[in-house]
Amino acid sequence: MSEINAPMGGKVIEVKVNVGDSVNEGDEVVILEAMKMELPVVASASGTVKEIKCSSGDAVDAEAVLLVLE
Q1: pTM for the whole thing?
Q2: HSE of 27 in the Cβ direction (CA atoms, 13 Å)?
Q3: Which CATH class is domain 2-69?
Q4: Domain edges within the chain
Q5: Which residue of 8, 25, 38, 70 is most buried, as measured by CB atoms within 10 A?
Q6: Do 60 and 12 contact (CB within 8 A), yes or no?
Q7: pLDDT class for 1, splitting at 50, 70, 90?
Q8: Other beta carbons within 10 Å of 23
Q9: SS3 string of the chain?
């Protein structure tokens, strides 16, 4: 199991995956807005999305867990 964390604090613009989706390392999974820029968050490992811990519009802190993969 691995977690995908926010690289910096910001606002979640879009969650690009759903629970049960398969992702590959490097796939965009979440788009954050930070410092007036859109920042794609990519999967650090391949796996299946087990849990989504954020939704569009959420404000997240740096290192907050966004997704859990298994």
Answers
A1: 0.91
A2: 16
A3: mainly beta
A4: 2-69
A5: 8
A6: yes
A7: confident
A8: 20
A9: CEEEECCCCEEEEEECCCCCCEECCCCEEEEEEECCEEEEEECCCCEEEEEECCCCCCEECCCCEEEEEC
